[in-house]
Amino acid sequence: MVSLLNRLHRLTPYFLIKQTLKIGNAASMLNGMTQLLLAKMNLSTLTSWFGGQPSDSGMNLLQQIISQVLNADTSELRKRVKQIEQSQGAPNKSQLELLRRYASQSAEEQQRIRKESESRSVSIVTAILGQDKGSPSLTEPSHKLALDYVSLQLAVRDREQLIEVLCLHQPDLVTTSIRELVTVYDPIIRALHKAVDLGSGVTDLQNFLDDVISLSLIDKTKPARLPTVQDFVHLLEKHQKSSHVFIHQALKNGKELSQWYHEYASHAIEQYKQTQVKDKVADGGTAAGDLTNCLNKLVSKLPKDQQQQIHRQLDHHAAFLDGLSQQSKARMERTIRASLASDKSDPEPEVEGSPGMFLLKWQYFIDRTPITPGPGNGPPRTGKSDSVVDATAVDVDGEKPAVSYQGSSNAGDSSLEPPDVSIVIQLLAPGFEEELQRIVASKKGKEPSVSP
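Above: the chain sequence. Below: its structure as tokens.
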């Protein structure tokens, strides 16, 4: 991700963007930015000046940048594919063809093979090669190369599909969508252009991204360490003045901007207002808002044993969320104390992990993601398996930086394990979906459609 951001950052024409944003007339500025990023220079563009029919063929500057960034990744991945094909002990040509073909198969066919791999407790490579009854078995080193080969082929196909959708698709929906987005936000852009020096704002953004990339990139030629939470705190403190200047100019010189934002925020908050629940229960008893009564009715219709199952799982889930909240709060307090200590020139304490409930939940989701078994077959691995964590540290060019990890990972407390709430989803999802359809239909003034 950092390498993608770095390539995108280097290809962005900041100088041209800043010069265009300095144009005094808002309409001319908008037209200049649109022409800079979205205009396509092709034969159709030239003939349209003389009355010809314009065409969506070709790529504009924005699409050229996206294409070059993704193609650079694809090129590195193809080099690694070639190395595997030429390496000693690699699968034979017919086996490589089967593995290559898997990457271009439909999602349904890939899902069928993944289910077969899971049900038989064999790796995805074994399941793919099993389609050819005459395919010889692989040794463990060859099996590892085959797993890498499948992973690389899928990564190449992902990037090719992104280029196809974002840059080469006809009609050009991306360019049309951006033009429509600019039209929708035209009044806000004009007011912001009038109130703020956008050129200086872009310079500040460029400097901030320079520092973010410099901090995040790891030198693969020598031992290094991962950036810590304090490193990013210091980075934000360094650049907070730029954001303060931007916000101050917008509020001082653009009174209508602050009014529009206030109206938007008030309208957004009203959407979460509880209008039907009158009697509030302690400890988050109305956490579902206006849908609380609906969910209670769905649960009450179930048999007693299923109701008890749901109550137990919800209690466990509530305890899990409470534990995450306390853990995140404790990490935030340690981060703030470390920041204050560094301001006083005291020894800066080490902060383990980063705060944020959603980051912790996301890490739990990653850790529990099922991954194909390794060369030895067996049950599926997970995102926190050592072999999986080791593989994710490899960059697209196949190099692995020598990183010395300091402190613990971003994972949460090992005593906090997310409970299995699948039975809740299984029992309540159908009725809840019908209730949502009824609510949406009532707001549109239409009768809800009854699914067969």
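The chain has 19 helices and four strands.
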